[in-house]
Amino acid sequence: MIIAIDGPAASGKGTIGRRLAERYGLNHLDTGLTYRAVGAAMLNGGISLDDEAMATRIAYHMDLEDLDFDPRNYAGAEIAEAASRVAVYSEVRRALVAAQRRFAKKPPGAVLDGRDIGTVVCPDADVKIFLTADPVARARRRAAELEASGRSPGFEAVLADIRRRDERDSNRALSPLRRAKDAHLLDTTDLDIEAAFRAAVDIVERARAAGL
Ligand code: C5P
Fold it and tell me: N or C: less crowded end of the chain, CB within 10 Å?
């Protein structure tokens, strides 16, 4: 089984994706981390984010198996912004999408979350969920998360980051953030993480009952 979860920044994709993977015994890939890893490598190497050729080289050399995908290593707003800057480059996307598809094909199947999973990476996914929430609700959650991990950029800064990335991710030419026609919409504005997870499980169970 392949489950595709898409949605804007801080909509809960990572947490819900991880928990669905645990529940159904599937592999899990937060594809945002692959773009964040390219952005982080650029920042660490002092490479300009305008350097498309270098971003492409880094993306082609990325081995998803080798990366330490602890989200805490890639949590900062600077890395998020760098990720969204390199994510507009066509060759970066080509390299990372190829790696993500290889990951999805490995048995027993996977949950992938990102922006273009249901539309581009796994258009034939068995279940597609489009998670969304009001930007203010998303910023509140992300600010609380960052504070818990010892960073406190403040609510206003987090909201500005989310709005800027929403705008860039939704309006870029390549693989913009879009709900696939056959994706189930799940609005988590008024749901806590437990309720959102239960709603996601309901969607998967209904799809399974219908023979996927
Ligand atoms: O999901 P996350 O906030 O970690 O993603 C960081 C950035 O990576 C996003 O703002 C987006 O620009 C990019 N991204 C993407 N396609 C994906 C996942 C993430 O373009 N499938």
Answer: C
Atom of ligand 1 nearest to the CA of 117: 21
Pocket test for ligand 1, best of 5, 43, 84 (most atoms within 8 A of CB): 84
Q: Is the pTM of this model over 0.70?
A: yes
- Of 110, 118, 131, the closest CA to residue 22 belongs to 110
- For residue range 64-107, list pLDDT tens digits in order: 876 667 777 888 889 989 999 999 999 999 999 999 999 999 99
**Distance from residue 25's CA to the centre of ligand 1 (Å):** 24
Which residue's alpha carbon is at the smallest distance from atom 1 of ligand 1? 32
Domain encompassing residue 153 = 2-209
- 108: preceding bond cis by omega (within 30 degrees): yes
Two tokens, residue 8 = 């804007």
